[in-house]
């Protein structure tokens, strides 16, 4: 089975071809990503109008390139999938409309994928991971702990009440003059800093519900930075190290709390999975590796190009849906907001 996947929900335009062999084992035939980071860097974040224009300019070319790299034609596909939300509405409409047009002209199935479902099913693209498992999805736009019970069957155990984790990294980087995107810059600074110098808060630590709050921590970094005049490179490194250490403590504590409540909603997890751009952070990975070991679980972390936004995760989620017969018609709408646990269908027994 083969699916072409298109991703345009944020600041990456991406297209990919994923196929499965007779045994159902997946292969990524191509995965073409064009990041708009340079176009948005001057503004310190993603500008929706710039993003939409950039998507419309390159999406056709990326689809052509993904097919070419795969050595296949549109006619060879079984389905065309696109992320239909959540995300910036202009971008989402461009990707979804492109997928509709391709599916219509080639007479292929259309699959409208929830972008978060793409992240949620990624571990199954790289190795055999059975349902249910606990997913920590942490990116610039999302921070969620999700019990993944099956395709289309998700229970949210926790989320952020304010900033996403990646967003907090980006804002801290911006206030310290490190540039955008902030995550990698803060991590690099933290490597040479003293994590014990600043006693920063660990919001939500010990709370019984697995929710996050990051804005108080971010503000605490700002207040410390404002007290130090002039702010020297040493101070910036120490602030980054102290901030990152606080984030790791919060992430491990919140994920442990979600693991405790997991069995009530979904039975016993087969793995702990981390995805989203923040999963690139080595300190966070180490914290989660410790937690997984302490809980007798394995940690599955997709390779970095599959952690951040790309077309292969959309193609794969599309293929998982297609092989269960979950297809969409041409009237399906783009959804700027689309919580994963409000999936339009729940597939009873879809545990394959
Ligand atoms: P969405 O939330 O819709 O998936 P996004 O573009 O924000 O969109 P990603 O591309 O998955 O999500 O991730 C980007 C985010 O990950 C940014 O906020 C970035 O700062 C953060 N990030 C990347 N590398 C690191 C790192 N090493 N440490 C911490 N955060 C990081
Ligand atoms: Mg991105
Ligand atoms: Fe994403």
Write the layout of secondary structure elements.
Blueprint: E1 2-7, E2 12-20, E3 26-35, H1 37-41, H2 48-70, E4 79-85, H3 89-106, E5 109-114, H4 115-121, H5 123-126, E6 133-138, E7 143-150, E8 153-159, H6 165-175, H7 182-191, H8 215-227, H9 233-266, E9 271-275, H10 282-294, E10 298-300, H11 304-307, H12 311-322
Parallel strand pairs: 1-4, 4-5, 6-9, 9-10
Antiparallel strand pairs: 1-2, 2-3, 6-7, 7-8
Helix pairs in contact: 2-3, 4-12, 6-7, 6-8, 7-9, 8-9, 9-10
The structure holds adenosine-5'-triphosphate, magnesium ion (MG) and fe (iii) ion (FE).
Fe (iii) ion (FE) is lined by residues 115, 119, 139, 309.
GO biological process, one term: tRNA threonylcarbamoyladenosine modification
Protein name: tRNA N6-adenosine threonylcarbamoyltransferase
Family: Belongs to the KAE1 / TsaD family.
The strands making up the biggest β-sheet line up spatially as 3-2-1-4-5
What best-fitting shape do the alpha-carbon axes yield? globular
Task: Return the string of H and E elements.
Answer: EEEHHEHEHHEEEHHHHEHEHH
Average pLDDT across residues? 94
- Just name the CATH architecture of the largest domain: 2-Layer Sandwich
Largest sheet: 5 strands, mixed
Distance between the termini: 15 Å
Bound molecules: adenosine-5'-triphosphate, magnesium ion, fe (iii) ion
Oligomer: single chain
Q: Would you give the CATH topology of the largest domain?
A: Nucleotidyltransferase, domain 5
């Amino acid at each position: 089975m083969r699916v072409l996947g298109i991703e345009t929900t944020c600041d990456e335009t991406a297209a990919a071809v994923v196929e499965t062999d007779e045994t159902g084992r997946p292969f990524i035939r191509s995965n073409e990503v064009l990041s708009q980071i340079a176009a948005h860097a001057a503004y310190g974040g993603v500008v929706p109008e710039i993003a939409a224009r950039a998507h419309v300019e390159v999406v056709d070319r990326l689809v052509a390139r993904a097919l070419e790299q795969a050595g296949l034609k549109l006619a060879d596909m079984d389905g065309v999938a696109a992320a239909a939300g959540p995300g910036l509405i202009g971008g989402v409409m461009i990707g979804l409309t492109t997928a509709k047009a391709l599916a219509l002209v080639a007479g292929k199935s259309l699959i409208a994928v929830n972008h978060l479902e793409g992240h949620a099913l990624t571990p199954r693209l790289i190795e055999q991971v059975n349902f249910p498992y606990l997913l920590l999805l942490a990116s610039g736009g999302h921070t969620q702990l999700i019990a993944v019970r099956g395709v289309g069957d998700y229970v949210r155990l926790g989320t952020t009440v304010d900033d996403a984790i990646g967003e907090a990294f980006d804002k801290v980087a911006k206030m310290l003059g490190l540039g955008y995107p902030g995550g990698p810059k803060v991590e690099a600074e933290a490597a040479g800093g003293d994590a014990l110098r600043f006693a920063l808060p660990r919001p939500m630590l010990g709370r019984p519900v697995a929710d996050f709050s990051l804005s108080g921590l971010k503000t605490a970094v700002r207040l410390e930075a404002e007290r130090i005049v002039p702010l020297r490179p040493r101070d910036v490194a120490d602030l980054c190290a102290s901030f990152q250490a606080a984030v790791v403590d919060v992430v491990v504590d919140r994920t442990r709390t979600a693991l405790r409540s997991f069995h009530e909603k979904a039975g016993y997890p087969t793995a702990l999975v981390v995805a989203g751009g923040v999963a690139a952070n080595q300190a966070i990975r180490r914290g989660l590796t410790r937690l997984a070991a302490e809980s007798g679980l394995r940690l599955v972390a997709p390779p970095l190009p599959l952690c951040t936004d790309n077309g292969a995760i959309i193609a794969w989620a599309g293929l998982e849906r297609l092989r269960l017969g979950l297809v969409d018609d041409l009237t399906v709408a783009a959804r700027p907001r689309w919580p994963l646990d409000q999936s339009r269908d729940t597939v009873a027994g879809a545990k394959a």
